Amino acid sequence: MQRGKASIEFEEPPVILSDASVAGKKEGEGPLGACIDVIEQDDMLGMENWEQAESAMQKRAADLALEKGNIRRREVRYLFAGDLLGQLIATSFGTVDLEIPLFGLYGACSTMGEALALGAMTVHAGYAQRVMAVASSHFATAEKQFRFPLAYGNQRPYSATWTVTGCGAVVIGRAAQDGREQDLPRIAGVTPGRIVDLGAQDSMNMGAAMAPAAVHTIRQNFEDFGVDETYYDKIITGDLGEVGRKILLDMMKQDGRDLTEIHMDCGIEIFDREKQDTHSGGSGCGCSAVTLCARVLPRLRSGEWRRVLFLPTGALLSTVSFNEGKSIPGIAHGVILESGTV
Length: 342
Hints:
By secondary structure, the chain is α/β, with parallel strands linked by helices. The chain has helices at 25-28, 50-68, 89-94, 111-124, 139-146, 206-225, 241-254, 266-269, 273-276, 285-302, 319-323, and strands spanning 2-3, 7-9, 15-24, 38-40, 78-82, 102-104, 130-137, 162-163, 166-173, 186-191, 234-237, 263-265, 282-283, 307-311, 313-315, 330-332, 334-338.
């Protein structure tokens, strides 16, 4: 099961039983709008404040994932979930009514990758028959915490990304013995990332901070599994955006590897840069989580893609570290997703 320095290959890959995505109005107007399960026209979701709105979004995504899979809450043993807010308040208030034992995760925008990896490891080890992975973000809560009050109306540089208002929820389980779940997407392996810090300090350029971590995890995945870029139909980063994508491709070319044709970034896919004025693209925990459920998993189910490396990326800064002049470390967790027909 252990592969190389950091990776794990599952002998009996856990399968993705069900998934659901919930997103805001702006995301619904983007290229993935028709593929997202629920588009909320009110970004407040009928709540009194932005934080409660994000919690409500988590609850709706989790309930919908269970409903789509005809799965009852009591059949899910553990919940792996996280968000961008201090002390994970969107998650703690959003999932309390699920009454599922919770592992609260913070990997910044890489949280969905971390949740998928830990969930798959837990299922494969036999500690649970079914678990759920959830990650969310909200434009207003993230801007309020990490940058400026919305009413301030500050000008954003072109390197900045737009935090996605969205949530993705995935139920992970063991493959049924009767073969009913043979065609479902599966988690074949994981390459957990390590923190990479090359000294980036611009909080309005998250792509530059996260790209080196993505490069490291891709290299580690190739080395541990003895593969190269031709092994995958797509290598899908979380939210590097236009700036981070260029850095990633340039760094990989230094290794003699051209990922131009197979690389996809969730932050670029979720918004229309020309029509929606999001500058470098999308970001936030919800960015890769929503794109996973709305675009990646459907293409694996259909067999259009046979194998992808899903690589959510995170910038591990806080308002405290940033105001103290610290650099912005990055991290990226790799998850190998395969079609059930592989």
